[in-house]
Amino acid sequence: MRLFLSLSALFISTSVLASGSSYQADLKSTEIQWIGKKVFVKSEHNGTISLKSGSFEIADGKITKGDFVIDMKAISVVDIKDPTDNAKLKGHLESPDFFAVTEFPEARFVITGSKPITSGGTHEITGDLTIKGKTEKIQFPATVKAEGGKTTMTAKIPVDRTKFHVKFGSPKFFENLVGDRIISDTFDISLRLVASESKTSTKKTK
Q1: Higher-confidence residue: 41 or 162?
Q2: How far apart are CA 122 and CA 103, in angstroms?
Q3: What average pLDDT does range 96-105 have in this prediction?
């Protein structure tokens, strides 16, 4: 019964995405949040980054390709309320210790393909993520829904920062780190991408 329900949900989801279409991200409605944690103490910080541009294409119920540019200069810290401490962490994240935003003002994710799945989401997304000029292939489950004239993709994406030369506080790169000086090598991105079918795409399908 559960398998039947899962397959039914998958069919409904992919059927509304079946026609060949191009979509443009709604930059105001799209939300990207980050969470970074320490390893041996209960401590974490969170904030946001902004999508600068984004588009993707759907065919036969799958996202076939997409291109998204992230504005790293727009990184923010949400959990720290004191203005001085907030600015201090934001400045550190912008520095070469972390994302070096002066040298690398943009990150990029290029979708190379996807496939329908029956658990953990509706699709497994595959693509190339570029941070600090370093590109790595990543995969993650996402839930893609089309309703009310818009398509929404939600996902939680774990990112191994060490693959992108984000080294600060990582025991992979620094010896003798102890306690609260050790930061997890993985940070999480929570994504809620909202997109609308592009006018060009609409004209082509008429």
Answers
A1: 162
A2: 37
A3: 96
DSSP 54-90: EEEEEETTEEEEEEEEEEEEEEEE-S--SHHHHHHHH
> What SS3 state is found at 199?
helix
Using alpha carbons, select from 159, 158, 185 the residue that is nearest to residue 172. Answer: 185
> Structure tokens of 130?
């570029």
- In the prediction, which pLDDT does 9 show? 42
Asked if residue 180 has pLDDT above 90, the reply is no
From the number of C-beta atoms within 10 Å of its C-beta (0-12, 13-18, 19+), residue 12 rates as exposed
Q: Please name the residue that has the structure tokens 């774990």.
A: 158
| Alpha carbon 65 to its chain's center | 15
Where helices occur in the chain by DSSP H, the ranges are: 2-15, 83-94, 199-205
Whole-number Å distance between alpha carbons of 128 and 110: 5
- pLDDT attached to residue 79: 96
The structure's pTM equals 0.85
82-91, 136-145, 168-177: segment of lowest average pLDDT:
168-177
Q: Measured in whole angstroms, how far is the alpha carbon of residue 28 from the centre of its chain?
A: 16
Q: Specify the residue for token string 């000029």.
A: 133
Q: Calculate the CA dihedral of residues 146, 35, 120, 162 and round it to 10 degrees.
A: 110
